Amino acid sequence: MEHKDEYQAELFLNRLKKKYKELRKWARKNRISCFRLYDRDIPEIPVSLDVYEFLPEDITNTLECARFLSEQNARIAENDVSVEKELSARRYAVLYLYERPYEKPQEEEENWLSLMAKKAAEVLHINCSHIIKKERRMQKGLSQYTKNENIPAAVKGIVQEQGQLFKIDLSTYLDTGLFFDHRPLRAHIRDTASGKSVLNLFCYTSSFSVYAAQGNARRIESADLSNTYLSWSKENMTLNGFTDKNKYIFTKGDCVQLLNEKKSSANPDDRFDIIILDPPTFSNSKSTQTILDINRQWQDLVNDSIALLNPGGLLYFSTNSTRLSFSQELITGAGTSLTVTDITAQSIPKDFEGSKCHRAWKIALKK
Taking the complete model, does pTM exceed 0.90, yes or no? Predict the structure, then answer.
């Protein structure tokens, strides 16, 4: 068993070395400070590894960030050897172990995961204490949002992504506050949001809203059931300089019910030019009596969202569910007043190439 673990550890090490050399250059070139380095590439090693490079603690806005990164890149170009030491001190990683299809003794599993973490730390040139180990099991309810009460100390910081800043918490919850796989779609929203009204449903920490605001959207409403994530959303918006309460609205509520309320509203502010619909696969939050199962209810959510679009409006629908059976025939108005386009291929970033991280569709309402 020990020999097998060491063999897998070497496989993992070699794979990480190859990918890190490539992705690190790509990330820096594209102003990305956090990315996925490994995602179950080798079947016998069912883990994912996400890399984060925090900004220095005294960086508190986008202008300071731009200035700092420009100076840092200049030092890198000049082969300043002290830069890597500074980066290593601010570099962390989250190592997720995915649930295996068979039982393995807990002690053996912990030892195995610690060995993989050691190899990851070696490649990333960081201390093993900078590797946060977590387990991803079959999703049940809001398990990915459940707070971890057993952490020794919270690991938090600010990262920048394509010019935007985001608060990250690596330790308190299973997820960290930013889903990397939607980076291309966020950039697309930023590039097309100018002068538009935007509704961000199931907004989580509102990364889509931040990008839309950066793209000069006229009005943005971010909706979520969680007070924790709405507070986090406001922090992210403030970090990027977006504080106008008349332009940036945060709505606490069940998004299923919210859609129904807005459908029956005559208020023009309840109609939107762009709607982002990226719901969880399953939710049975104690905060609502509604149980959400996206595999059964996706068409209702999509059709209710379409009902809120202004003429010429766009709905972006995405899901992480591999079991969802999408059918254009179930969308009201498809083929007549609507154009439905599968945009999955162009919405997958480089660090997720070859994976099935999500599927996405653009649904356009004709003018």
Answer: yes
